[in-house]
From TrEMBL:
It comes from the Eukaryota. This is Transposase. It comes from Heligmosomoides polygyrus. PANTHER family: ENDONUCLEASE_EXONUCLEASE_PHOSPHATASE DOMAIN-CONTAINING PROTEIN, REVERSE TRANSCRIPTASE DOMAIN-CONTAINING PROTEIN.
Amino acid sequence: MWMDPSGQGAKEDVRAVVKTAPIQLKMREQRLRWYGHVLRRPEDHPTRLALDFEAPGKRPRGDPRKRWKDVIKRDLAEVGATADDALDRTR
């Protein structure tokens, strides 16, 4: 169990024994929870303003940087939810 050279089997075995979810799922859950919290803030609140902030000027060359908003959009798509679902606290 603990001597798996790849390390994957051991992690999965430990996770099964301890009954915890993979860290990626927990991180997605927390991001979406925070997103819902930010969306429920008033329109003039600093966290809400930061959500829609676009930095002026040109971006550097190369691939676009990963933005928090893009990660949230991907998370919502993976769980089959919308921004309106994030506002609904009963779900």
